[in-house]
Design brief:
137 residues, mainly alpha, 2 domains
Length: 137
């Protein structure tokens, strides 16, 4: 769990810092440096946490059962339920928009498959059949 100072920033300063962060990440992503900057800024634990949350939201958007999500991503059931409720309340409009793009969604699923397999080759003929069924392959 990340820890931040008890001393709060002035809202205007906080917003300016956040805006700068987003601009840095967006400009570096266009140059292919986004992963490097995130690796520099975030601990390995924070990177994994964000990647798992993003994957969980993508799976929720696809209608995958919650128990399958927490087993697949090794998240707690309470985390998956919380993300589901937030998704249901419309808290993730930017992620919904991102995953509505078919090419981006397919690229994401390919990356997620590699992550879930831990870089190992596919095992078994129908191992990812449920994912293929989603896309009607």
């Amino acid at each position: 769990m990340p820890h931040i100072s008890k001393d709060k920033l002035i809202k205007k300063d906080s917003e300016e810092i956040y805006t700068t962060l987003v601009e840095v990440l967006l400009s570096s992503a266009k140059k292919g440096e986004g992963r490097n900057i995130l690796s520099e800024l975030l601990t390995e634990t924070e990177q994994v946490m964000l990647a798992k949350r993003c994957a969980a939201i993508a799976l929720i958007a696809e209608g995958i059962p919650l128990y399958r999500i927490w087993n697949m991503l090794k998240l707690s059931s309470s985390t998956v339920r919380r993300l589901y409720l937030q998704y249901d309340q419309g808290i993730y409009p930017n992620l919904e928009k991102y995953f509505s793009n078919k090419k981006k969604r397919i690229d994401f699923w390919k990356a997620l498959e590699i992550i879930l397999r831990g870089g190992l080759p596919e095992q078994g003929k129908n191992r990812w059949k449920w994912l293929d069924d989603i896309y009607g392959k």
